[in-house]
Input
Amino acid sequence: MAERRMFARSIVGSSRFLSLSPGARLLYYDLGMAADDDGCVEALAVLRMTEAPADALEELTQADFLTPPPPRQGVLYPGLEPQ
Output
């Protein structure tokens, strides 16, 4: 996992980003720092570690700064099928 992260000035300096609440903007940076090299992050863990308001996550999603993952599909493992 990389130790350095870069944020695009065109994103974080845009009026769309700057119109977010301070909590949502800070959460965006925290999520970016916790993300893996593919941009995936466990948002709930970051919310709890940073004590960010839960509505900040929704605000980022509504503003299209975050893409929620698709709903998890059930996985059947060989030999563990329901009887």
